[in-house]
Amino acid sequence: MKAILIDSENFNVEDIDLKEDEFGEVDISDIHKHLKCSHFDVARIGNGDAIFVDDEGLLRSGTQPAFEHKGYHSLLVGNGVVLGCGSMGESQPPKSTVEEIREAVQFGVVGMKN
Questions:
Q1: Band of residue 112 on the pLDDT scale cut at 50, 70, 90
Q2: pLDDT over 70 percentage in the chain
Q3: Is 32 helix (H, G, I), strand (E, B) or coil?
Q4: Backbone dihedral region for residue 36 (phi beyond 0: left; psi -120 to 50: alpha; all else: beta)
């Protein structure tokens, strides 16, 4: 399934293809791979799209790559995967384009101390 990767480590936004399971749903392990995490959360950005992000990103120590999206109220740590959401909660390709996400994202870093 078509998706958009927000690569905060390399300050890049690009189209990606996520693997699908036998039911046509996104293979969750592929989201984990792109996010480089074991647990993710979802940040809704207003047009039916959502950004999947590392649920534990703010808990990690040290300096972490991060980004802000103008459609979301908080800093997001790590990479992001943008997908659309259907009326029954199913994943679908995003309505946003790569260019729209590039314009909406600002990259940075966050430093945490334990």
A1: low
A2: 96
A3: helix
A4: left
